[in-house]
Amino acid sequence: MERLEMQRIEKEKWNQLEAKDLERRNEELEELRLLEGCFPEAEKLKQETRLLSQWEHYLQCDGSPDPSVAQEMNTFISLWKEKTNETFEEVIEKSKVVLNLIEKLKFILLEISPCDLQDKDIIQYKGSILQLQELLHLKFNVATEILLRQATTLADLDSGNMEKIIKDENVTLYVWANLKKNPRYRSVRFSETQIGFEIPRILATSDIALRLLHTHYDHVSTLHLVSTPSKEDTSSVTESVKDDVDNVKKTISKEAEEKSKQQEKGSHLIQEEEIKVEEEQGDIEVKMSSAEEESEAIKCELEMKVLSETILAAQLLLVENLSEKPEFFEDNMVDLCQFTTLGGIYHLDILELPPQCKRVKGWMIVEIRKEGLQKYTYPPETTEDLETENAFPPIEVTLEVHENVIFFEDPMVARWDAEGKHWRTDGISNVFYKPKERLVTFSLETFGPLTLIQDAHINMPYQSWELRPLDVNKVLLTVTTVFTEIQIQIKENLCMLSSIKLRDKKHVSILEGKWMTPIPFIIALKEAGLNIFPTRYSHFYVIINNKVPLVEVKAYRQMALLSSAFAFGWSKWNLLCNSTKVVFKVREHLTEECTETPNWAILMFSGDRAQRLKITEDSEAFSEALKEETEFHSTLYHMLKDCASKEAMEKVRSSNCQFVNSVCHMLLSTRLLSYS
Question: Which residues form the CASC1 C-terminal domain (predicted)?
Answer without folding.
Answer: 421-588
